[in-house]
Write a structure and sequence with these properties.
The complex is a heterodimer of chains A (655) and B (184). Chain A contains 7 helices and 43 strands. With 655 residues, chain A is mostly beta strands. In chain A, strands 18, 19, 20, 21, 22, 23, 24 and 25 form an 8-stranded antiparallel beta sheet that branches. A 6-stranded mixed beta sheet of chain A has the order 2-11-12-16-17-15, with no helix packed on it. The longest helix of chain A is centred in the first third of the chain and has 38 residues, at 4-41. In chain A, 37% of the residues are buried. With 184 residues, chain B is mainly alpha-helical. Chain B is 76% helix and 0% strand. Chain B has helices at 5-13, 18-39, 42-59, 66-88, 97-101, 107-123, 128-139, 144-151, 155-175, 180-183. In chain B, helix 1 crosses helix 2 (18-39) and helix 7 (128-139) packs across helix 9. Chain B is globular and about 50 Å long. The two termini of chain B are 18 Å apart. Classes of the chains: A mainly beta (655), B mainly alpha (184). Chain A binds chain B through residues 1-2, 4-5, 7-8, 10-12, 14-15, 17-19, 22, and chain B through 17, 20-21, 24-25, 28, 46, 49-51, 53-55, 57-58, 99, 102-103.
Chain lengths: 655, 184
């Protein structure tokens, strides 16, 4: 039994231990709290990274602009928000039934898709050795002559397509291989095929629906344009593969070259390929590695960056996306020159000597309590007629363009049709857009949205607008299709499924006149100048499931419908290149798949190809046969009494 | 009931280490017995008492009332005992009760001690809460209000608990042959 003194001593010893323990504990807790606090609550840096170290670089101006537009401040203020608050909010929203949120599921699905599709790589440079003069060494076949079957926008400026032909063979890109068929009516056969493979020997399969090709004038070389993804460089490239087709039974590759980005379009003019791609700079790029923000071109082992003085860019960037143009020799695949337009779109028009690139932006003007925002388009012009690209300047028009057919160069004048939109905000008296922001006045703004169509004529020597017809379409209508034919311009505008089609007479720019069809059902996504001054409209009928092909003719007072052909409840080709146009014979061909069918119909019977003939009065169905394949990838050609149709299969029909 | 505990504590806070021994003399025995109610082990009860004192003097809390000081000390001892039982599990056995009463060996206390020992032994057969409330009430003469604070219960609960525990203790005492006269 302890004495009280002993107890007191023991108590003091224990108290000392407790004090020591408590001090250690308090110190530890404080330290952990401070470290945790710093770690969780230290604010993220939300200022754009310094680019001072690139001051000496020729790309410094470009880097400065890209740094400003690609910098994205962190989504969260600190780690606490990122790791604790955000998951908590996600969890709460999930419990609240937000599982179907597009971002939540869509992102994950997309990532998986990308991984599967993009398992490709650049080939090794071993093909380089045979690249120098492939066709010059190849035996020429004088009996082969080139026949143009693509309905090119500009005469002499050949567009890439999935089908090309000579007088002996038809060349068709099917899935991931090039097929060559003999032209021999019902006895036509597959003369040869060539699977396109990457460096690892894997057949190219990704982006196969984007593939296009050119056939050289001597019919010895096919130049295939395809996209591929390089996992090592983590970038997408457009590859140009040169294929020797002198002997269809012994097809071989000559070599290949690359341009960064996704494929937009290509042209072949006088043995030079104008290859156009789009290249996007990711957010917060690492500027120490040029491949992150400068487009490249060349062979797999020797990629060259586009020079700084070859990059056209506006004062203020609106996007971090390039439109890259590269002029490549068809035979040697050597690039003559490469240039790029930064902040431009994929709406490109190529005339016989110039490339027109477009950049949409918004112009905002304020006066008193009224603010008007208007869509504008800057059209930059690059000449490619010389050895090197030459930037000629730019012109600006109001509105936005529909596609390449919205522009046309004719006798020194660039004609452009745009959808003009303006957005007027009227604030309460005494307020402007800036002062009303985040105040009660912001709730009392009246909005007015105006949409119509306009036509502009730009003199290419001065780059000034010399004639214009503004807001000619009914209010609220936008441009759906345009086609220029010398001094005529055809424009289809529409609200949902009703349209008028306009025809403009541009022979006198001081007195532009136009007529229209009035309101008719449906609208055309393609307008084509057809036989004997007829206009062909291909598009939707009474519903988005109705194919309507209609012919119009111009009378003294209006543009009148002559006849039409409709197929209800179907999906059909919407890519203009998938529509076969033969003006000489008055043929129109298109693929479609029926949505309704008899129980006895097989899948094959629903998927069809139809050829129509305009006999001067109506569109007569000449061919309607089953043809497997995706509608936009189907092609056909009429030769000497036979229609050759290509999809996933090959069908020949006598007409 | 000790009268000088608060004064000793104030002197201790002022730095007079010897005042702690006075505080120990005043409260340590009753505190050990109180801990024994839970633990049924004299060595452990002694240890818990010392630890309770150690925590008490480390915290250096200020009191204006002697009863509050005492109640606070008991509260620490109670919490420490319960913590120990939780940690160890409740497999403790009655042992060394003599030790718990060893310090009450003055002449005038011997009779009281014998009587207390009998009651205390019977109390150990009661459930834990009954033991606790009886000890605080009869051995340490806490007021109901103080017992409420120590046991974290309402006054009504303490009254009920006291009534039931007295009835239960009476039954045990009668079984053991201890009558009302033996106690008073």
């Amino acid at each position: 039994m302890k004495t009280y003194t002993k107890r007191t001593e023991d108590i003091l010893i224990k108290a000392k231990k407790i004090r020591k323990k408590r001090n250690v504990l308090v110190t530890s807790i404080c330290s952990v709290a401070i470290i945790l606090g710093v770690f969780l609550f230290a604010p993220y840096d939300n200022t754009p990274p310094s680019i001072a170290k690139y001051k000496g670089s020729e790309y410094f101006e470009l880097i400065s602009k890209l740094n400003a537009i690609t910098y994205h401040a962190p989504q969260y203020e600190n780690n606490f928000e990122k790791w604790i608050l955000a998951p908590l909010m996600n969890f709460t929203s999930l419990k609240g039934g937000a599982i179907s949120d597009g971002n939540f599921n869509g992102g994950a699905n997309m990532d998986i898709g990308m991984d599967v599709d993009m398992n490709l790589g650049l080939p090794e440079a071993d093909a380089e050795s045979s690249l120098d003069a492939p066709s010059s060494q190849a035996p020429e076949n004088p009996s082969d002559s080139y026949e143009e079957i693509t309905d090119n926008q500009v005469l002499g400026v050949i567009e890439g397509d999935r089908i090309k032909r000579s007088n002996k063979y038809i060349y068709y890109l099917s899935n991931n291989q090039l097929n060559i068929y003999t032209i021999d009516g019902e006895n036509s056969v597959l003369a040869g095929s060539f699977p396109i493979k990457d460096a690892n020997g894997y057949q190219f399969s990704a982006y196969a629906d984007e593939w296009e090709m050119f056939l050289s004038n001597d019919c010895t070389t096919i130049t295939l344009v395809s996209s591929c993804f390089n996992h090592e460089l983590k970038q997408r490239y457009v590859s140009l593969v040169s294929i020797d087709v002198t002997d269809p039974a012994n097809i071989k590759e000559n070599g290949r070259t690359y341009l960064t980005g996704n494929y937009i379009t290509a042209r072949l003019v006088d043995g030079k390929i104008i290859l156009i791609s789009e290249f996007s700079v990711a957010n917060n790029p690492d500027f120490s590695d040029k491949k992150n923000f400068i487009p490249q071109y060349g062979t797999a082992d020797n990629m060259t960056y586009v020079l700084a003085d070859k990059i056209v860019m506006p004062e203020e960037l609106t996007t971090s996306r390039y439109t890259v143009v590269c002029k490549i020799d068809e035979k040697t695949l050597k690039a003559d020159d490469t240039a790029a337009f930064l902040s431009y779109t994929n709406q490109i028009y190529v005339s016989d000597s110039k490339i027109y690139a477009t950049r949409p932006y918004q112009k905002e003007e304020s006066k008193d309590n009224v603010t008007i925002s208007q869509d504008m388009t800057e059209i930059s012009i690059m000449s490619y007629s010389g050895d090197l690209f030459e930037y000629l300047g730019s012109a600006t028009v109001a509105g936005t363009l529909n596609d390449q057919y919205s522009m046309d160069e004719y006798e020194g004048i660039l004609r452009v049709v745009t959808t003009t939109t303006s957005h007027t905000e009227t604030y309460p008296e005494g307020y402007t857009k800036q002062t009303a922001y985040n105040s009660a006045a912001d709730m009392m703004v009246s909005y007015q949205f105006n949409e119509s169509a306009s036509l502009y004529c730009i003199d290419l020597s001065t780059l000034k607008i010399v004639a214009q017809v503004e807001n000619f379409a009914p209010q609220g209508e936008s441009v759906r299709s345009v086609r220029f034919d010398k001094n005529l311009a055809y424009v289809c505008t529409a609200i949902v499924l009703t349209d008028p089609v306009f025809v403009f007479d541009l022979s006198d720019l001081n007195n532009i006149t136009y007529k229209d069809t009035g309101t008719i059902k449906g609208y055309s996504f393609s307008l084509v100048n057809f036989a004997d001054n007829y206009l062909l409209g291909i598009g939707y009928g009474s519903s988005m499931e109705t194919l309507k092909i209609e012919l119009y003719t111009e009378t003294d007072t209006a543009l009148e419908s002559v006849c039409s052909y409709e197929v209800e409840y179907c999906s059909f080709a919407t890519d203009y290149k998938a529509i076969y146009i033969d003006r000489d014979n008055g043929f129109v061909g298109i693929g479609y798949i029926k949505h309704t069918y008899a129980s006895s119909d097989s899948q094959d019977a629903r998927n069809r190809y139809v050829l129509l003939h305009f006999d001067g009065y109506e569109l007569v169905e000449l061919v309607n046969v089953p043809l497997e394949g995706e509608q936009n990838l189907k092609r056909s050609v009429y030769i000497d009494g036979y229609l050759y149709m290509f999809g996933e299969g090959f069908v020949v029909q006598a007409i | 009931m000790p009268q000088n505990g608060l004064e000793s504590y104030i002197r201790f806070l002022k730095g007079e280490t010897s005042a702690l021994e006075e505080l120990v003399r005043t409260y340590s025995d009753s505190l050990t017995r109180f801990a024994y109610c839970y633990l049924n082990d004299s060595a452990l009860a002694e240890d818990i008492m010392e630890e309770s004192f150690a925590i008490f003097i480390v915290k250096r809390k200020h009191f204006n009332d002697e009863n509050h000081l005492r109640a606070y000390l008991y509260k620490i001892a109670r919490n420490k005992s319960i913590d120990y039982l939780r940690w160890r599990g409740r497999e403790v056995f009655l042992s060394d009760m003599e030790e718990v009463f060893a310090n009450s060996n003055t002449e005038e206390n011997i009779i009281k001690m014998e009587r207390d020992k009998k009651v205390y032994a019977c109390m150990q057969k009661l459930p834990e809460q009954y033991r606790e409330v009886l000890y605080l009430s009869f051995f340490d003469n806490f007021h109901t209000g103080e017992i409420c604070r120590i046991m974290k219960k309402s006054k009504k609960q303490i009254y009920n608990l006291l009534a039931r525990s007295k009835a239960a203790l009476k039954e045990i005492l009668l079984k053991e042959g201890i009558t009302h006269e033996d106690i008073y």
